Amino acid sequence: MGRFPLGPWLQQLLSPWGLALAAALLLLVLSLRARRTRRPGEPPLLKGWLPYFGLALQLQRDPIGFMKTLQNQHGDIFTLLLGGKYITFILDPYQYHLVMKNQKLSFQMFTKNILKKAFSIQKLMTSDDLNEELHDCYKLLQGTSLDKLMENVTQNLQQVFEAQLFQTTHWDEAHLMTFCRSVIFEITFATIYGKSLAGDRKKFITDLKDDFFKFDAKFIYLLSDIPIELLGNTKSIQKNLIKHLASENLAKIQGWSEVVKMRQDILEKYYTVKDVEIGAHHLGFLWASVANTIPTMFWTIYYLLRHPEAMAVLRDEIDHLLQSTGQKEGSGFSIHITRKQLDNLVYLESVILEALRLCSFSSIIRFVQEDLTLPSETKDYLIRKGDLLAIFPPLMHYDPEIFEAPEEYRFDRFVENGKKKTNFFKRGKRLKYYVLPFGMGTSKCPGRFLALNEIKQLLVVLLTYFDLEIMDDKPVQLDYSRFLFGIQYPDSDVLFRYKVKS
Ligand code: HEM
Fold first, then answer.
1. What's the pLDDT at 197?
2. Which residue has the CA at smallest separation from atom 9 of ligand 1?
3. Which residue has its alpha carbon closest to ligand 1 atom 41?
4. Which residue has the CA at smallest separation from atom 11 of ligand 1?
């Protein structure tokens, strides 16, 4: 009584027309940002003709070709308007350090926003301590903790594939992306979070997986300025997932890894145990642990299927290891390979690196906290507070001076004289970094060792026990909709068939 009647207004605002109006106003406000002009001393500024979107569409259509054209016209440093953000790109690998060492740049400021938009994690916006403590957990993705995680991967692989090994040896067909999604999600979830104690385990993981991939399909829109309310049922899927991963439901899962235990302890210090935002943190971590591993697995297998010569060399390398360690194929699921042994499989590593080189479009992005001067070799550049600064490694991955015929898939590109090849050159100087799918510096992916080992273990199992053949002839292309964020997905799925080796 006597209060302003909010109800009807809220209903109006949340109606389709209200939301469309709100979106239009937002677009108007954001397009005002596009009126900026270049100031003396700033890098070349390229805004395109589309307000707000700027050059996003051209870049998304052909990221490498378009970036090369811009580089030829404007040099190695320029600022682009992309989806309402001004991003200054650094293209020369010898200038990457300018971004790494600058105190006025922040990775946290950039990720906090992403975590808020994508996963509804609010507390990191205000608590640096929570952020630091959570980062401390990442040490549990290395060393002896990594060995334990790898043991879990082996056991979970066994559970997923063992039943298949006793089936008759007929061909089964599957879509490769669907297969990779399913296998990586199940194995990674069981490895990191454990297994549900609920009566129907299969239903638990299938429901979680289905919701997760519906959410993931909207991920890139969540990062934009489009309010989540305008993204169909994304909000309710996100809510559902967060609830699934909240403390009371996680308590029904057995076999948490050390990293999950430590994260949960920290979260319970900063939230009440019932706070659903704890589930939002777990959703973020789960997303990080599978979203890039899945397409990496896809492309690695896809290229192998299309290159039988690569598949043959890899089978040989794996057979040789199994024989030299006294492990025979064909006697049930019994492979056990250590991290060191996996590390010595140079062709196995090379096929993964080659897939990452071709398909990783991860950029290393920092938020500019204060106006700063970027001292490049030829000239100093002024960069504005509030902008983003980005290293764009794909251009290095496709640089013909570094990689001969960079568009070609060469499975042994990272092997030389039977050893890992690590010497790649530009302008006659050896490069410190030449494939950068995992970021760099403070923000470097803490799960990279687990990701690579999990993919290696899965490939060893597939190649040891199964015959695999591609069935679709049409080449699959990269879909660039996630082009600044990680490994690109394929533009279509591809049919393949597999059977247990006779
Ligand atoms: C092939 C698979 C993977 C790729 C390509 C990948 C790539 C990346 C990249 C590019 C970043 C951001 C780095 C930056 O902005 O500088 C990142 C961050 C992160 N990744 Fe991965 N990742 C993979 C797998 C994993 C796995 C398996 C886990 C966990 C078990 C994981 C956990 C994380 C976490 C927690 C962060 C955030 C780190 C932070 O906030 O400082 N990633 N990853």
1. 80
2. 438
3. 443
4. 445
> 293 pLDDT band (50/70/90 cuts)?
very high
Pair 414, 349: CB distance under 8 Å:
yes
Asked whether the beta carbons of 359 and 295 are under 8 A apart, the reply is yes
Is 292 labeled as ligand-binding?
Answer: yes
Alpha helices per DSSP H over 339-447: 339-343, 346-359, 394-397
pTM of this prediction? 0.92
Residue partners of 177: CB distance under 8 A and separation at least 6: 294, 298, 489, 490, 493, 494
- Per DSSP, the three-state class of 82 is strand
pLDDT at 217: 93
Amino acid at 31: S
**Which atom of ligand 1 is nearest the CA belonging to 454?**
27
Classify residue 441 by burial, with Cβ atoms within 10 Å: 0-12, 13-18, 19+.
Answer: middle
61-116 tens-digit pLDDT: 999 999 999 999 999 999 999 999 999 999 999 999 888 878 899 988 888 989 99
pLDDT at 191: 97
Six-digit token pair at 196?
Answer: 């549900």
Task: Give per-residue pLDDT as tens, 162-220.
Answer: 877 667 678 999 999 999 999 999 999 999 999 988 777 888 899 999 999 999 999 98
The structural domains of the chain, with segments of one domain joined by +, span: 130-361+402-417+442-500
d(C-alpha 394, C-alpha 126), whole Å: 34
The CATH classification number of 130-361+402-417+442-500 equals 1.10.630.10
- Measured from the CA of 107, which atom of ligand 1 is nearest? 15
Yes or no: say if 427 and 404 are a contact pair by the CB < 8 Å rule. Answer: no
Residue 369 identity (one-letter amino acid): Q
- Cβ atoms of 235 and 211 within 8 Å: the answer is no
CA of 327 to the centre of ligand 1 (A): 33
CA of 324 to the centre of ligand 1 (A): 34
The DSSP 8-state label assigned to residue 44 in this structure reads P
Please list, in sequence order, all residues whose beta carbon lies within 8 angstroms of the beta carbon of residue 303, skipping any fewer than 6 positions away.
Answer: 310, 351, 354, 355, 358, 409, 411
Q: Is 423 annotated in some ligand binding site?
A: no
- The Å distance, Cα 472 to ligand 1 centre, comes to 32
Residue nearest to atom 27 of ligand 1 (CA): 289
Q: pLDDT tens, 314-367? A: 999 999 999 988 886 655 677 888 999 999 999 999 999 999 999 999 999 999
